[in-house]
Amino acid sequence: MPIPDDAHDPSTIAYDRQLVPWLFEHWAEPFIDLAAPTPSARLLDLACGSGLITRHLAGRLDRDGRIDAVDIDPAMLAYASATIGDERIHWHVSDSSKLPLGDGSLDGALCHQGMQFFPTPSDVLAEIARTLRPGGRLTVAVWGRLDDNPWPAALADATRAVLGDEAAAGMTTVCALGEPSQLIAPLRAAGFEHVTAETRERTATHPDVQAAVAGQLDALPSGSITDRLDDDQRAQLAAVMIAHLAPHTDRDGRLAVPSTGVLASAIMPENA
Question: Whole-prediction pTM value?
Answer without folding.
Answer: 0.95
